[in-house]
Amino acid sequence: MTLLRDEHLAAAFDHAARSYDTLVAANPGYHAHLRRSARRLGLPRGGEGLRVLDLGCGTGASTGALAEVLPSGDITAVDASAGMLERAAAKTWPPNVTFVHAPAERLAEAGVTGPFDAVFAAYLFRNVTDPDAVLRTVHGLLAPGGRLAVHEYTLGGRRTDRAVWTLVCRGVVQPVATLLGDGDLYRHLWRSVVEFDTADRFADRLRANGFDRVRRLPLPGWQTGITHTFTGRRPTTTETAR
């Protein structure tokens, strides 16, 4: 199958929204890993006085991680799938969390404007048609010195990383998803990872799009070598001028 993109991918997520939380709950460490990546933003004072963008929030798992780690931050959560966003918004949230329906490529049209002090993006970049364009948009939304954390399936480059990913997808995830009527989306999931950047390549992509202090950080458990946190920063005006 070809990769799902744009409105076709959003429609697949719309359909999968009803069972998405059940499937991710079966992934050991899923929510703990998101919280770990949110902490890796390194924002002070629980986010007090800071604006944070949750880009590609899905049914709200990443939003929940941010709300727990940054209880005093002003969190704007965005997703292109109306079905996923409806599930997210129906949950109980503190008043500092706002949801907006918009693709990552058209944030300004939906009224999502900077500057943000931080952007968090979980499982997003391998799903967009032009990740470089979205990274440039994120760079422009961040205040000088603002921070980015990307939580993403990016294989470490060893043959065992791809083998474990394939085993989990084909042996567990895809059969269950097919029974639920969402086989196309989860076949896309497998392929989108094996065809996307390796972890080193994605770190280089961040640097090429203007981010500095880029770090590639592993996550524990079965996802070691499969899922990583990437952190980076928009340089300050003074640093950019040098």
What does the model show?
A seven-stranded mixed β-sheet has the order 3-2-1-4-5-7-6, with helices on both faces. Helix 4 links the parallel strand 2 and strand 3. It is built from nine helices and seven strands; from the N terminus they run ααβαβαββαβαααββα. The protein is an alpha/beta fold and 242 residues long. Helix 1 packs parallel to helix 4 and helix 2 packs across helix 3 (61-69). 44% of the residues lie in helices and 20% in strands.
Brief synopsis:
This protein is an alpha/beta fold and 242 residues long. 44% of the residues lie in helices and 20% in strands.
Strand-helix topology:
Elements: H1 6-25, H2 30-39, E1 51-55, H3 61-69, E2 74-79, H4 82-89, E3 97-101, E4 116-122, H5 131-141, E5 142-153, H6 159-179, H7 183-194, H8 199-208, E6 212-218, E7 227-233, H9 237-241
Parallel strand pairs: 1-2, 1-4, 2-3, 4-5
Antiparallel strand pairs: 5-7, 6-7
Helix pairs in contact: 1-4, 2-3, 6-7
